[in-house]
Amino acid sequence: MLFDILTIRFLLKYFTRPMHFFGGFGLFGTATGGAILGFCAIEKIIWNGDIVLEHGPLMVAGSLLFVTGMMMFSTGLIGELMIRTYFESQGRRIYAIRDVLTQKRRNVISEP
Q: What pLDDT, in 10s, does the model give residues 65-83?
């Protein structure tokens, strides 16, 4: 029941722009995982420690975060492609114009 509500919320808010949803999670996961893996690499290079014994779970968590972030980012890109293809095949635009607030005059020649 909760997942149905979340699915409807996602479709209503992010249907035409899935990268806004998946990109945020992807960026967070990739950046956090990259920072953790960078920390482990710097500690290995500078202090020449045994990373697997000292920071094994942290390294696994960083790897999983990095890979999951890349997968979320890729899912957002694939979703964008699918939505663009869907709307282009229908001949519709992704957005709808609710109100026209100003109109330009056409073919009006101003005299100097």
A: 999 999 999 999 999 999 8
The 10 Å Cβ neighbour count of residue 26 is 21
SS3 state of residue 31: helix
Q: H helices within the chain, ranges in order?
A: 2-14, 18-47, 51-90
pTM for the model stands at 0.71
**Residues with Cβ within 8 Å of residue 67, at least 6 apart in sequence:** 33
Tell whether the torsion through CA atoms of 68, 71, 77 and 78 is positive or negative: negative
The percent helix, strand, coil of the chain (3-state, each to 5) is 75, 0, 25
Tally the C-alpha atoms within 13 A of residue 32's C-alpha that lie toward its C-beta: 14
Instruction: Provide the 8-state DSSP code for 70.
Output: H
Q: How distant, in Å, are the alpha carbons of 4, 14, 51, 59, 81 from that of 46?
A: 50, 45, 12, 17, 43
Query: Residue 27: phi, psi to the nearest 5?
Result: -65, -40
Amino acid at 27: L
91-112 pLDDT, tens digit each? 887 777 788 888 776 665 656 5
